[in-house]
Specification:
It is built from eleven helices and eight strands. It has helices spanning 2-12, 82-88, 129-143, 157-168, 188-203, 217-231, 234-240, 244-258, 264-272, 307-311, 342-350, and strands spanning 24-34, 40-51, 65-69, 101-105, 151-155, 176-179, 290-295, 318-323. It has an eight-stranded mixed sheet, with helices on both faces. α1 (2-12) packs parallel to α8 (244-258), α3 crosses α4 (157-168) and α5 packs antiparallel against α9 (264-272). It is globular, with a radius of gyration of 19 Å. The N and C termini lie far apart (39 Å).
Length: 351
């Protein structure tokens, strides 16, 4: 039971994690950043954390950079959590930070980067994944001076960002590791639960068109309910909470852990940023090695649709792995538990 509650809490508050020795934080600033809608922001701030040290080759170019991209509602620091960090960053591990320079950005609308709750509220530019990836690209190339990344690993929303990178900036990363997404437009059930969440917040009278003086807690609570369903492992839920009382008590615990850490307008923007995502027409442009992993218990990306199995055939160096559902997998959040895929990642990095 404690293990599952921990997993639910991780979905609830993905940004909370213990610090890692040697981690460095900084901000990149981009003046008059123009969004795909035509809107501009006088200054876009992208906060980021780095681990390890850049290494320069004989030509003076950084040749050991890796970028890891978080999911919706998360931050770069979610990758400090032990189920990820303890399995990957240590000596001899796949992302050994004595060997790699690891970049962990807070993407637009998230963490300590520019977001609606900074003051603009619903007047903040309506960013999408293309905008987020363009900011990442500028962070890597302009701020950090990196011409080529060795790896982009992305989870959930970050998984989709990896596909945007692959189809937009061909060859900018030597390898891609997209975990927990599909490479097509957000539609069907995936679009349903997102729109339900947004509608719940906007339907709360306290929301007031985004100009609330106190949080619209009822709308946020419904969005939290939907997020828990979308992220949970049904096999583990049934195994650990086989009675009504046990299930309801666990739900109360999970909602309590999840509540209070999000802003309503930020949440709306985060969910709506997926609206234009669709790398499908350009997948053939991805010619670098790709390790694409989904899990069999993922509500958000239902494996029975078979989308990934078809799409992976269109990328010449791509491999797709579906992790079978079990009481040990973590639903949609399996992407952050490195024990399920670290060996496959090591093989990708060896290519």
């Amino acid at each position: 039971m404690k293990k599952l509650l921990l997993a639910l809490a991780l979905v609830a508050a993905p940004s909370l994690a213990a610090p890692i020795d040697g981690a460095k934080e900084a901000d990149a600033s981009f003046k008059d950043f123009r969004f795909g809608t035509g809107e501009t922001l006088p200054e876009l701030k992208i906060h980021y954390t780095t681990l390890g040290t850049p290494h320069r080759n004989a030509a003076g170019e950084i040749d050991n950079a890796v970028m890891i991209l978080h999911g919706t509602g998360g931050t770069g620091k979610q990758f400090f959590r032990p189920q990820f960090a303890d399995a990957l960053y240590g000596p001899g591990q796949p992302l050994d930070i004595t060997r790699y320079f690891v970049i962990l950005p807070d993407n637009i609308g998230h963490g300590d980067s520019s977001k609606p709750s900074d003051g603009l509220r619903m007047a903040f530019p309506r960013y999408d994944y293309d905008d987020m990836v363009r900011a990442q690209y500028r962070l890597v190339t302009e701020t950090l001076g990196i011409k080529k990344l060795q790896l982009i690993l992305g989870t959930s929303m970050g998984c989709m960002h990896a596909f945007v990178w692959g189809t937009t900036y061909q060859g900018a990363a030597a390898r891609l590791a997209p975990f927990a997404c599909n490479a097509t437009a957000i539609a069907g059930r995936n679009r349903w639960w997102r729109k339900m969440s947004v509608d719940a917040i906007k339907s709360d009278p306290i929301w007031n068109g985004g100009n609330y003086t106190s949080p619209p807690v009822q709308g946020l609570r419904t969005a939290d309910y939907l997020g828990l369903i979308a992220g949970a492992n049904p096999v583990a839920l049934q195994a650990n909470f086989p009675t009504r009382d046990a299930a309801e008590k666990a739900l109360d615990t999970a909602v309590t852990a999840r509540s209070g850490g999000t802003d309503a307008n930020d949440t709306i923007y985060q969910l709506e940023s997926s609206r234009t995502y669709n790398p499908d027409p350009n997948l053939e442009k991805i010619t670098v090695p790709v390790l694409w992993i989904n899990s069999g218990d993922d509500f958000i990306n239902p494996p029975e649709l078979g989308m990934a199995e078809q799409a992976v055939k269109r990328m010449p160096k791509a491999q797709f792995i579906l992790i079978p559902a079990s009481a040990e997998t973590k639903g949609h959040g399996t992407h952050t538990w490195a024990k399920f895929w670290k060996d496959d990642l090591a093989k990708l990095l060896a290519k």
